[in-house]
Specification:
The chain is α/β, with parallel strands linked by helices. The protein is built from 14 helices and 21 strands. Helix 8 (218-224) packs across helix 10 (253-259).
């Protein structure tokens, strides 16, 4: 080979080595990048059992947290009922969809941040809670003790009602309002850092300074804070009875204060359940109505296997695996077997048995039944109840007393079935037992007979009751004084929202616990993602060093 050929060969060999070196440097990282980009992060599989306030808010909040963290998630919501909303649902008066009325949770208030904010985000039409009330009398609220009206509030300017309250009860109304605001502000600390999200509701309650409020009865709490017994019995107890079917010696102090936080009472036109339906839509969850979960088999490292069935005549059990499971409702009503059993299962607590009777009638509530003898008298459009002076039922759960019912509300008017009749009034009764035909006739000012004591509203003629709907609820627990509450984590990856029921039982607090569970879950996912990213970074650094070594060799 001549010198010219040797030079060309040497130059070609040099170029070849340089080219190989460059390709090696470029392709090795590209290979790693291609491999990394082809990896698809599997979506987290989450099952939410229950489509009420807690379950809907869990799904809604989890979607927001997961999207913010760029973590894919598939959410499946199982609901054994045929509708969304849990204890918030409506029925149609006279079976007309134009006349929906709340059967369960009727109102929420200004401080209910989750419900207020979700209503705005969803574009729902929110109105004053009593905007449909007929307003045919200036007496809006009366408190009946079984013998007389202990207190009547008129539909007049707020300052006049305040002046009237102070004239009758002294400083008790002002002290109550200040105590309520002070207590509620402590409760609102649970919404934000450093308390939120909380792994222990007991520790969160302690951190917010509320254990001394839940530890005592409403009666003791009010007395300790210089609220007069007369105002407590006639006004505050009327509120605890209509909201929770409980008297002040039974219910704890925190729930008592919640009953007095009524500023800005509102509801969603068409039904409050629309909030939870909208939440589920925004969560992009697979909502399975008429599906009952019967068992959960879990392992510490997952997944959990859910066994469920559809509510048909011949259901066949089905199974699906999930990375996370949320039981979004009271444990004792879930009827779910967990295998292996968690170390601590939630306590079974008694729930109030509430009869709700909705009906329409051409008749007004009778003034005579309530001892109003003036021919021009009208009964208040909302009648709450309390115990007569000197009546001490102590901590008895059967606490309705002589009144026999918790409340009677005039909700609205609707066109009568026969247009010639004009309008009918729509009423709602809360009572511990099913109202008899005798009671129904008496409050409507109708003549009664001996047989009416053994019959019910369904036996009344259509001319007197044009439509009715009855429901037996277990809407809230007996909220006894207590200082410990159920944790939101029953077992690894098995979450629970129902512990908040014995703390405060409302749509809003169920929503708070749903968001809390979603926040705790997503926090675990974020930590897991960060650990995985750090591990990949270490592996990448190690691989780059090895590659450089191979190139040098």
């Amino acid at each position: 080979m001549d010198s010219s050929s040797r030079y060309r060969f040497f130059r070609f060999s040099l170029y070849a080595h340089v080219l190989c070196y460059v390709i090696t440097l470029c392709l090795i990282p590209l290979g790693h990048a291609a491999s990394a980009s082809s990896e698809v992060t599997p979506a987290k599989r989450v099952a939410v059992i229950g489509a009420g306030a807690a379950g809907s808010t869990t799904a809604y909040s989890l979607r927001k947290y997961a999207d913010a963290l760029q973590i894919p998630v598939n959410i499946t919501v199982f609901e054994r009922s045929s509708y969304v909303g849990g204890r918030s649902t409506t029925v149609n008066v006279l079976d007309n969809p134009a006349n929906p009325v709340e059967l369960g949770a009727s109102i929420f208030v200004d401080i209910n941040q989750h419900l207020v904010n979700a209503s705005k985000e969803l574009g729902l039409h929110v109105t004053s809670a009593n905007y449909l009330r007929p307003r045919e009398t200036e007496d809006t609220i009366g408190v009946w003790d079984g013998e007389q009206f202990a207190f009547v509030m008129k539909d007049s300017s707020s300052w006049w009602n305040i002046a009237k309250l102070i004239w009758k009860y002294g400083l008790a109304p002002i002290r109550t309002y200040r105590l309520m605001k002070f207590t509620v502000n402590k409760f609102l600390d649970l919404y934000d850092e450093p308390i939120f999200p909380f792994e222990s509701l007991t520790l969160a309650t302690e951190a917010a300074g509320l254990l001394n409020t839940t530890a005592v009865s409403g009666a003791f709490f009010l007395q300790k804070n210089s609220i007069s017994s007369e105002f407590s019995r006639e006004v505050i107890q009327a509120s605890t009875r209509v909201n929770y079917g409980q008297n002040l010696p039974l219910i704890h102090g925190l729930e008592t204060m919640v009953c007095m936080a009524t500023d800005g009472a509102m509801s969603v036109e068409g039904g409050n359940w629309l909030i939870f339906d909208g939440m589920l839509n925004l969560s992009h969850a697979d909502v399975r109505l008429n599906h009952t979960v019967t068992s959960i088999d879990w392992a510490p490292n997952g997944p959990s296997t859910l066994t469920f069935q559809t509510n048909t005549n011949n259901p066949s059990p089905e199974q699906l695996d999930f990375d996370e499971v949320v039981i979004a409702g009271p444990w004792q009503f879930a009827d779910i077997t967990i295998t292996p059993p968690p170390k601590k299962t939630p306590d079974e607590i008694p729930f109030v048995k509430l009869h709700v009777t909705l009906f329409s009638s051409p008749h007004r509530i009778s003034p005579k039944y309530f001892g109003l003898t003036d021919p021009d008298a009208h009964t208040p459009e909302t009648i709450l109840t309390t115990l007569p002076p000197g009546t001490d039922l102590g901590k008895s759960e059967a606490g309705v007393g002589p009144a026999g019912f918790w409340s009677i509300s005039t909700l609205r008017t609707v066109p009568a079935p026969d247009p010639a009749e004009g309008k009918h009034y729509v009423y709602k009764i809360f009572s511990p037992e099913r109202p008899t035909a005798k009671f129904m006739k008496s409050i409507l000012g109708l003549e009664t007979s001996a047989s009416d004591s053994t019959t019910s509203i369904g036996d009344l003629p259509k001319r007197d009751v044009s439509w009715f709907h009855e429901k037996i609820w277990r809407p809230y627990p007996f909220v006894y004084p207590r200082v410990t509450f159920e944790d939101p984590l029953l077992a690894p990856h098995i979450w629970y929202t129902g512990g908040i029921e014995s703390f405060i039982s409302t749509m809003e607090t169920s929503a708070l616990m749903g968001r809390n569970v979603a926040a705790l879950m997503s926090r675990e996912w974020q930590a897991q993602k960060e650990n995985e990213n750090e591990e990949k970074a270490r592996e990448g650094s190690s691989s780059s060093a090895d590659d450089e070594m191979r190139v040098e060799l």
